[in-house]
Specification:
One of its GO terms (cellular component) is myelin sheath. It is found in: Apical cell membrane; Myelin membrane. One of its GO terms (biological process) is myelination. The protein has about 140 residues and is mainly alpha-helical. The protein has a domain of about 55 residues. Helix content is about 70%, strand content about 0%. It has five helices and no strands. The chain is elongated, with a radius of gyration of 19 Å.
Length: about 140
């Protein structure tokens, strides 16, 4: 939802007049589409059918790349906001897009952390770590 807000707010401005917003639009739309595809994959449990793919590793790489590229998109978006814009509503939408890009960047960063822990198996609890097989 936050990624959708980023590109929808920018798309509602005259972003084509500023080259910096092209990068922000690419990053936000690209990762929004991929995130929706991953969501549908997990919602329909299609990852169980493709058991050969190491899904925790794929999600870790995806989230890490998304975090790095969203850092660049956030910085680009925030730096391109001009408070002396001749159209006040463009300024408001671009400032809001920068805010939501920061939130998306933080969300992907947290998701990278948790997917890395899942990939490395660091999320076990005390009950599963104490179980031993005495046969």
């Amino acid at each position: 939802v936050l990624g959708l807000l980023v590109w929808a707010l920018i798309a509602d401005t005259t972003y084509h007049l500023h080259a910096a917003y092209g990068w922000v639009m690419f990053v936000s739309i690209f990762f929004w589409i991929l995130t929706v595809l991953f969501f549908v994959t997990y919602l329909l449990q299609l990852q169980l059918k493709f058991y050969v793919i190491p899904w925790p590793l794929v999600l870790t790489i995806f989230n890490a790349v998304a975090t790095v590229l969203y850092i660049t998109a956030f910085v680009t978006c925030a730096a391109a906001v001009q408070p002396t814009s001749w159209r006040q509503w463009d300024y408001n939408r671009r400032a809001a897009a920068s805010f939501f890009a920061c939130l998306v960047m933080i969300a992907y960063g947290a998701s990278t952390f948790f997917s890395f822990r899942a990939w490395k198996g660091l999320g076990s609890n005390a009950a599963t770590s104490q179980v031993t097989d005495h046969a």
